Amino acid sequence: MLKRAEKLLYTLPTGLQNVALSLYGISLLRNRHGGNYKAYYEQAVARSRASRQELDGYENETLVRMLEHAVATVPYYRELHRQGQFPIEKVKGVADIQYLPTVPKAELRSNPEQFVSERYALEDLSVISTTGTTGTPLRIFCNANVRQRNYAFHDRFLTMCGIDKDGLRATIGGRIIVPSSDRNPPYWRHSYFQKNVLFSSYHLNDGTIGLYIEKLRALRPDYIDCYPSSIYSIASHAKKHGIPLRGITKAIVTSGETLFDDQKAVIEEQLGVTVFDQYGCAEMSVLVTSCAHGSYHVHSDFGILEILNSSGEPARDGEEGEIVCTGFINDAMPLIRYRIEDRAIAGQRHCPCGSALPTVARVLGRDDDVILTPGGDRIGRLSPVLKGFPVREAQYVQDKLGEMKVVLVPDAAYGPEDEAKLVRELRMRVGNEIRIEFQYVERIERGKGGKLKSIVSRIK
Length: 460
What we know:
Elements: H1 2-11, H2 14-33, H3 37-48, H4 52-73, H5 75-82, H6 105-110, E1 126-130, E2 138-142, H7 144-160, E3 169-173, E4 188-191, E5 196-200, H8 209-219, E6 223-226, H9 228-241, E7 252-254, H10 261-271, E8 275-280, E9 287-290, E10 296-298, E11 303-308, E12 320-327, E13 338-345, E14 359-360, E15 362-363, E16 371-372, E17 378-379, E18 391-398, E19 403-410, H11 416-430, E20 435-440, E21 455-457
Parallel strand pairs: 3-5, 3-6, 6-7, 7-8, 18-21, 19-20
Antiparallel strand pairs: 1-2, 4-5, 8-9, 9-10, 10-14, 11-12, 12-13, 13-15, 16-17, 18-19
């Protein structure tokens, strides 16, 4: 239904597309910022001013309560507890969490309903379909309260950064705003009630970036919410051609990809503002954000983040390990010691910002290359292509300009019609000038740390 609506949207004149997006934005505002959102936001802001001791008390109580809820109402955990494999009686607080087993991502993918609390009817819950970093489809169940808690924490992050959460923003992300086949500007659409101008990240190249800059200069949004690669493309282009960017916005918020130090330096130099990076997930089980001093803070009242080394022990400062997370906000689908298949470097530091939230040295997940089109477009984060398709894993490989290979591990329900639909989805992002080849395999080779890289580019 949503796909059909999107196709219809693209046939409308630009002005009517803006109207349609704005009307849709009203429903999003109600869902995300209606209901109990205000109370959740105020509570989250109050906790951001709490001491470490106060946060410890809150997190310990919340964890114990979540574990009791999981064993009482969630089939997956109840069965583990019955078998003696989920000993919540040993867990008095966060320090005891390693008494519990970890949950592999594959388990969640194959049996999502087993993680849903029986307090909620499945038909009454919303489903978020996501592929995550690995390209593996997931179905996450939640309700309006969960979404409102999630957005309350996101808005707390903005507030902690000194950003007006209700201000005008420009978004440059993975959503298809303008089909890649449409090469004519404008490459953005307006959602008026959300105070959001959505820019296409699929049309950014040397020939179009000047138009993006002109639009951003006219808008002067309070902040730009974007992929690191998108704003870096703009900043590096401006640096190369001597185009001034200072004064365009008050802050940059990045997510969805790894923000590299050299990217951050160029972006901040050219725009004259701080880049605030964030790491989260559609599973709503972890939130890590950077502050003005560059520290990465774990929002530990949102959920517990563990970094485990190859022996399954907590990583030492400076040691790389696997991220394991326990979410606090989604009681409809509790994820406890969930192995999200991203990695991080452990590292506690006293941050001059004064926040009592703990820190990590670096999040290493979401480190993708890009697909380069003959026209010079750099296309990253292709994982949304797989949403709703019976595909277990995917990797996009480019060895030669004008060509790309899609390596797929299909599910049993996958058929020839799915390949044709996937080609159409890819064409909307990479255009018609790239030859697309499919390769079907039983398993995709992993890289460092057992992580599957979504995009592999061998073009130098």
